[in-house]
Design brief:
By secondary structure, the chain is an alpha+beta fold. It contains 12 helices and 14 strands. The longest helix is centred in the N-terminal third of the chain and has 19 residues.
Length: 425
């Protein structure tokens, strides 16, 4: 690969410099891996057109020309391939963009590029960048000197992990020392606020495999039918239950396992933030199961647990959770998930209005896409398998792709499991 140029781009229209505080939720994901995706096209506009359309798009997203903690908010790499194809890689600092924000931005950029290519009027873009809307949704007075006990009574029973990384120094990896060390200004007054992280369950030196599993629409519907013999679950609940059960079986150890599912706040608050709200308004909930629960691969109870847990995060409880998080000593202290032999983190990039595969810069949809996830044991990501069209009413009608990052031996066990493809006709 030859680097042709590196440039810092700004909106095509001038803007005054501004500082915008991040929300409670944005601050929590400060140490998360970047939100990143790659789109590869067999044909695409020229680099000059992509650059011009990016500058025009940044007029609606001026904050992403700035910096976060001295680092670029957004990095884009355009690679021209020997067969005239083009790869477009987009990477955000996670506090500024979750997967939904990434997809909105790339779709907007593609729409502007397509309009420029066809000499059409540029589309009107209307993203909402106002992190204060999250903080204003918190219950009680988050500027008070102490949290409200009555509000905490609503937040504390919610099904989520509250791993206290400041209470987790023992056994922690060397590269985690900065995160698990209590800052000097808090040493005298800090009491444990949650269980410690069980580092022994994560062999960070073990090799990790990455594998993509495609499930057809017919498989997804069969999985859903099986799960709903016990419960009323969505197609996504059923797929999560299937994948997680397979992972537990592949671990080949007894005891408890935890599934940490990322969920969004946008449409769960009242009033809702809306799909065009930018940032990382997300958190993770937990579901617990045992090796015995997964042994017989009964999807209904697990899918039902996922659905029941999701229902607890609503417009009545999320403001209380925001209140609790606002009074934590540091937004980086509590971890809502972990990875390794006992924990699986699953995140969905499914977006029925703006699917990842529907991005079109004016030359057609991508030939290949990839959601870039950290290569860590226990990380799972889900997205649509096929480009959606007018005849497709729901995402699962086009199938799904599941991206797995698992320890090598666990991955091999999973791929050999005869239950993996038991729903294939």
């Amino acid at each position: 690969m030859t680097i042709i140029s590196r440039d810092r781009l700004f909106p095509s229209s001038s803007r005054q410099l501004a500082r915008t505080p991040l929300s409670i939720l944005d601050s929590i994901v400060l140490r998360y891996a970047p939100t990143a995706g790659v789109w590869i096209f067999r044909d695409a506009p020229t680099v000059d057109l992509l650059t011009a359309s990016l500058k025009a798009t940044l007029n609606a997203y001026p904050q992403w020309s700035g910096q976060l903690l001295g680092l670029p908010s957004l990095i884009i790499q355009i690679t021209t391939l020997v067969d005239n194809g083009v790869a477009i890689a987009v990477k955000f600092a996670h506090p500024l963009a979750d997967a939904m924000t990434l997809l909105q931005f790339v779709h907007d950029w593609a729409a502007v590029s397509k309009a420029m290519r066809q000499n059409d009027p540029l589309p009107a873009l209307s993203p909402i960048f106002d992190p204060s809307l999250i903080d204003r949704a918190a219950a009680g007075d988050i500027d008070a000197s102490h949290p409200s006990p009555s509000v905490l009574e609503t937040a504390r029973p919610l099904p989520l992990h509250r791993y206290d990384c400041w209470n987790s120094k023992a056994g922690s990896p060397p590269f985690m020392q900065a995160l698990v060390t209590i800052p000097p200004e808090f040493e005298a007054s800090t009491e444990p606020s949650g269980p410690s992280i069980d580092w022994a369950n994560w062999d960070y030196s073990a090799p990790v495999s990455h594998y993509l599993l495609d499930f057809t629409a017919e498989e997804l519907h069969a999985i859903w039918n099986d799960a709903n013999s016990f419960a009323t679950a969505s197609h996504l609940d059923a797929l999560l239950a299937h994948i997680w059960s397979l992972i537990i079986r592949a671990r080949k150890v007894d005891g408890e396992f935890h599934l940490d599912v990322t969920f969004g706040f946008r449409n769960r608050l009242d009033p809702p933030l809306g799909t065009s709200f930018l940032g990382s308004p997300l958190y993770g909930m937990k579901i617990t199961a045992t090796a015995q629960d997964a042994a017989d691969h009964k999807l209904g109870p697990i899918a039902n647990a996922i659905r029941s847990s999701l229902h607890t995060f609503n417009a009545s409880t999320l403001p209380a959770l925001l209140h609790e998080l606002a009074f934590e000593s540091s937004p980086l202290r509590l971890w809502s998930g972990f990875f390794g032999a006992r924990n699986t983190i699953i995140t969905s990039w499914i977006h029925e209005q703006l699917p990842m595969r529907n991005v079109d810069f004016g030359t057609g949809p991508p030939a290949y896409i990839e959601a870039v996830m950290p290569s860590t044991d226990g990380i799972v990501q889900i997205m649509e398998l096929s480009k959606s069209g007018p005849a497709m009413k729901r995402w699962y009608e086009g199938g799904a792709t599941v991206s797995l990052h698992l320890r090598d031996d666990v991955m091999q066990n999973l791929l050999r499991d005869p239950l993996l493809r038991q729903y294939r006709s």
